[in-house]
Amino acid sequence: MPLVERDSTLDSIHQLLDGAAAGRGGALFVIGEAGLGKTSLLDLAVEAARGGIAERRGELDQAEHHYLAAVAFLSAMQLPLVRAETLIEFGEFLILRGDLNRARQVLGDAVHIAEQHGAEWHAARARTAWRRAGGRARRTAPGDLSPQEAAVAALVRAGRTNRQIARQLSLSENTVETHLAHVYRKLGIRRRWELIARANA
Question: Is the pTM of this model over 0.70?
């Protein structure tokens, strides 16, 4: 997309968000949950969206401001997986900024929340980003899947293709194939469908 056209689109989205935040119209529809007002959920959606837009524009200070606001809204909500997802997005943004110490802390929290609620897909994504930020995992016992192998296996079970997995985990397709070969060997299987079948057993 040409730069002028992209900026015009982002400006339109900003206007949409401003209108939603001010209560003008139904551009953003958010379903409230028990004990949560629609306003707080809408505020969260607006801040997260603004953070992503600012990041894509290269306005990193503004992006951090909006991501922090989104995280702050989530601290008062019982939405653990949304919180984990938001922390992952914020952690990946901090990696982009080169703030690796804070990124590791944020992503470590995301891993903990995701694991605590059995969300392996979120946990795998958070662990991968945490390692990109310089996190060091404990040595894997012989025969156990490494964190990266576990992340690839979880995404295969979720129905992702190798290309999609490579894009999600910021790997090459060859690396994904290598990890899968290790997974098959360690689990004593030979085919992709066997790995998927294990998840459904």
Answer: no
Q: How far apart are CA 176 and CA 172, in angstroms?
A: 6
Residue 126: CB atoms within 10 A of its CB come to 29
- CA dihedral for 140, 141, 145, 151, sign (positive or negative): negative
pLDDT, tens digit, for every residue of 70-123?
Answer: 888 887 777 888 888 889 999 999 998 899 999 999 998 998 888 888 788 888
> Cα–Cα distance between 4 and 36 in angstroms, integer?
39
Angle of CA points 14, 70, 38, to nearest 5°: 80
Query: Which ranges of 58-191 would DSSP assign to H, the alpha helix?
Result: 60-74, 80-97, 100-116, 120-132, 147-157, 162-169, 173-187
Q: How far apart are the first and last CA of the chain?
A: 45
| CATH number assigned to the domain covering 3-132 | 1.25.40.10
98 contact partners, CB below 8 Å, separation of at least 6: none
Domain 3-132 and domain 147-200, same fold? Reply is: no
- How do the domains of the chain map onto residue ranges? 3-132, 147-200
Euclidean distance between CA atoms 80 and 114, whole angstroms: 8
Enumerate residues 6+ apart whose C-beta is below 8 A from 30: 38, 41, 42, 45
DSSP string, 163-195: HHHHHHHT--HHHHHHHHHHHHHHHT--SHHHH
CATH code: domain 147-200 is 1.10.10.10
